[in-house]
Specification:
alpha/beta
Amino acid sequence: MFTAVLDTCVLWPSLQRDFLLSLAVEALYRPLWSEPILDELEYHEAAKLVDRGLNRASADARASRLVEQMRSMFEDALVENWEPHEGTFGLPDPDDEHVVAAAVVGGAGAIVTDNIRDFPRAKVPQHILILTPAAFAADTVATNPEVAVHALATISARFRNPRQTVDELLTILEARYSMTEAVELMRGV
Protein backbone atom coordinates (compact mmCIF):
# COMPACT_ATOMS: atom_id res chain seq x y z
CA MET A 1 0.00 0.00 0.00
CA PHE A 2 1.26 3.48 -0.87
CA THR A 3 2.39 5.44 2.18
CA ALA A 4 2.54 9.22 2.58
CA VAL A 5 3.56 11.63 5.31
CA LEU A 6 0.91 14.31 5.76
CA ASP A 7 2.46 17.63 6.76
CA THR A 8 0.65 19.82 9.30
CA CYS A 9 -0.38 22.37 6.68
CA VAL A 10 -2.33 19.62 4.89
CA LEU A 11 -4.06 18.45 8.08
CA TRP A 12 -5.09 21.88 9.36
CA PRO A 13 -7.90 22.69 6.87
CA SER A 14 -10.84 20.68 8.22
CA LEU A 15 -12.54 19.39 5.07
CA GLN A 16 -9.23 18.69 3.33
CA ARG A 17 -8.07 16.70 6.38
CA ASP A 18 -11.36 14.82 6.57
CA PHE A 19 -11.24 13.97 2.88
CA LEU A 20 -7.61 12.81 2.87
CA LEU A 21 -8.04 10.78 6.04
CA SER A 22 -11.29 9.28 4.74
CA LEU A 23 -9.38 8.07 1.68
CA ALA A 24 -6.99 6.38 4.11
CA VAL A 25 -9.89 4.82 6.04
CA GLU A 26 -10.97 3.32 2.72
CA ALA A 27 -7.46 1.80 2.40
CA LEU A 28 -6.47 3.85 -0.66
CA TYR A 29 -3.17 4.73 1.06
CA ARG A 30 -1.53 4.66 4.50
CA PRO A 31 -0.95 8.00 6.27
CA LEU A 32 2.11 8.76 8.36
CA TRP A 33 3.06 11.63 10.68
CA SER A 34 5.54 12.49 13.40
CA GLU A 35 4.87 13.65 16.93
CA PRO A 36 5.87 17.23 15.98
CA ILE A 37 3.28 17.18 13.16
CA LEU A 38 0.55 16.18 15.62
CA ASP A 39 1.72 18.71 18.21
CA GLU A 40 1.70 21.49 15.63
CA LEU A 41 -1.73 20.41 14.37
CA GLU A 42 -3.16 20.46 17.88
CA TYR A 43 -1.73 23.94 18.53
CA HIS A 44 -3.00 25.42 15.26
CA GLU A 45 -6.38 23.69 15.46
CA ALA A 46 -6.96 25.18 18.92
CA ALA A 47 -5.92 28.63 17.65
CA LYS A 48 -8.32 28.28 14.70
CA LEU A 49 -11.19 27.41 17.04
CA VAL A 50 -10.40 30.36 19.31
CA ASP A 51 -10.38 32.64 16.25
CA ARG A 52 -13.85 31.28 15.46
CA GLY A 53 -15.12 32.29 18.89
CA LEU A 54 -14.63 29.21 21.05
CA ASN A 55 -13.17 29.79 24.51
CA ARG A 56 -9.58 28.62 25.04
CA ALA A 57 -10.42 25.63 27.26
CA SER A 58 -13.03 24.28 24.83
CA ALA A 59 -10.76 24.89 21.85
CA ASP A 60 -7.87 23.09 23.54
CA ALA A 61 -10.13 20.16 24.43
CA ARG A 62 -11.52 19.84 20.89
CA ALA A 63 -8.05 20.07 19.33
CA SER A 64 -6.74 17.44 21.72
CA ARG A 65 -9.71 15.17 20.95
CA LEU A 66 -9.04 15.54 17.20
CA VAL A 67 -5.44 14.39 17.60
CA GLU A 68 -6.47 11.52 19.88
CA GLN A 69 -9.05 10.39 17.30
CA MET A 70 -6.36 10.44 14.62
CA ARG A 71 -4.04 8.42 16.85
CA SER A 72 -6.68 5.79 17.60
CA MET A 73 -8.01 5.57 14.04
CA PHE A 74 -4.53 5.24 12.53
CA GLU A 75 -2.58 3.40 15.19
CA ASP A 76 0.30 2.65 12.81
CA ALA A 77 0.64 6.19 11.43
CA LEU A 78 2.98 7.61 14.06
CA VAL A 79 6.60 7.33 12.95
CA GLU A 80 9.02 6.92 15.83
CA ASN A 81 12.82 7.01 16.01
CA TRP A 82 13.13 9.59 13.23
CA GLU A 83 15.23 11.89 15.45
CA PRO A 84 18.68 10.56 14.37
CA HIS A 85 17.90 11.71 10.82
CA GLU A 86 16.80 15.22 11.78
CA GLY A 87 19.21 17.86 10.53
CA THR A 88 20.81 15.64 7.89
CA PHE A 89 18.89 16.91 4.85
CA GLY A 90 19.91 20.58 4.78
CA LEU A 91 16.38 21.89 4.16
CA PRO A 92 15.87 25.66 3.90
CA ASP A 93 13.80 25.57 7.11
CA PRO A 94 15.39 23.33 9.76
CA ASP A 95 11.96 23.03 11.41
CA ASP A 96 10.86 20.87 8.44
CA GLU A 97 13.62 18.30 8.90
CA HIS A 98 11.38 16.04 11.03
CA VAL A 99 8.96 15.69 8.09
CA VAL A 100 11.61 14.23 5.77
CA ALA A 101 13.07 12.18 8.63
CA ALA A 102 9.64 10.68 9.30
CA ALA A 103 9.23 9.92 5.58
CA VAL A 104 12.58 8.14 5.46
CA VAL A 105 12.06 6.10 8.64
CA GLY A 106 8.42 5.35 7.81
CA GLY A 107 9.21 4.21 4.27
CA ALA A 108 6.93 6.84 2.72
CA GLY A 109 6.63 7.23 -1.01
CA ALA A 110 5.55 10.86 -0.68
CA ILE A 111 5.36 13.91 1.52
CA VAL A 112 2.08 15.76 1.08
CA THR A 113 2.51 19.47 1.77
CA ASP A 114 1.43 22.91 0.63
CA ASN A 115 4.99 24.12 1.28
CA ILE A 116 6.62 22.61 -1.80
CA ARG A 117 9.46 25.16 -1.85
CA ASP A 118 10.46 24.12 1.69
CA PHE A 119 11.30 20.63 0.37
CA PRO A 120 13.69 21.19 -2.56
CA ARG A 121 14.01 18.13 -4.78
CA ALA A 122 17.81 18.10 -4.38
CA LYS A 123 17.51 17.88 -0.57
CA VAL A 124 14.94 15.10 -0.31
CA PRO A 125 15.79 11.45 -1.04
CA GLN A 126 14.90 10.76 -4.67
CA HIS A 127 12.44 7.96 -3.91
CA ILE A 128 10.19 10.35 -1.94
CA LEU A 129 7.78 12.46 -3.99
CA ILE A 130 6.83 15.94 -2.81
CA LEU A 131 3.15 16.46 -3.65
CA THR A 132 0.56 19.14 -3.05
CA PRO A 133 -2.68 17.92 -1.47
CA ALA A 134 -4.46 18.43 -4.81
CA ALA A 135 -1.92 16.32 -6.72
CA PHE A 136 -1.95 13.65 -4.01
CA ALA A 137 -5.77 13.58 -3.98
CA ALA A 138 -5.85 13.20 -7.77
CA ASP A 139 -3.35 10.33 -7.71
CA THR A 140 -5.14 8.62 -4.83
CA VAL A 141 -8.66 9.05 -6.20
CA ALA A 142 -7.47 7.78 -9.60
CA THR A 143 -6.71 4.38 -8.03
CA ASN A 144 -10.41 3.85 -7.29
CA PRO A 145 -12.83 6.77 -7.87
CA GLU A 146 -15.83 4.75 -6.66
CA VAL A 147 -14.23 4.17 -3.28
CA ALA A 148 -13.28 7.85 -3.09
CA VAL A 149 -16.91 8.83 -3.68
CA HIS A 150 -17.91 6.43 -0.90
CA ALA A 151 -15.41 8.17 1.39
CA LEU A 152 -16.97 11.54 0.52
CA ALA A 153 -20.48 10.16 1.09
CA THR A 154 -19.38 9.08 4.57
CA ILE A 155 -18.22 12.64 5.27
CA SER A 156 -21.49 14.01 3.89
CA ALA A 157 -23.48 11.79 6.25
CA ARG A 158 -21.75 13.41 9.25
CA PHE A 159 -22.92 16.91 8.30
CA ARG A 160 -26.14 17.75 10.10
CA ASN A 161 -26.48 21.50 10.42
CA PRO A 162 -26.27 22.49 7.69
CA ARG A 163 -26.44 19.34 5.58
CA GLN A 164 -23.74 19.02 2.92
CA THR A 165 -24.38 16.80 -0.07
CA VAL A 166 -21.62 14.94 -1.88
CA ASP A 167 -22.03 17.37 -4.78
CA GLU A 168 -21.64 20.37 -2.45
CA LEU A 169 -18.53 18.81 -0.91
CA LEU A 170 -17.07 18.20 -4.37
CA THR A 171 -17.65 21.86 -5.20
CA ILE A 172 -15.87 22.93 -2.00
CA LEU A 173 -12.94 20.56 -2.64
CA GLU A 174 -12.52 22.10 -6.07
CA ALA A 175 -13.08 25.76 -5.17
CA ARG A 176 -11.32 25.92 -1.82
CA TYR A 177 -8.59 23.29 -2.22
CA SER A 178 -8.04 23.27 -6.00
CA MET A 179 -8.73 19.53 -6.19
CA THR A 180 -10.10 19.86 -9.73
CA GLU A 181 -8.64 16.63 -11.10
CA ALA A 182 -9.80 14.53 -8.14
CA VAL A 183 -13.25 16.12 -8.31
CA GLU A 184 -13.54 15.41 -12.04
CA LEU A 185 -12.66 11.77 -11.42
CA MET A 186 -15.29 11.47 -8.71
CA ARG A 187 -17.96 13.30 -10.70
CA GLY A 188 -17.32 10.77 -13.49
CA VAL A 189 -18.44 7.86 -11.32
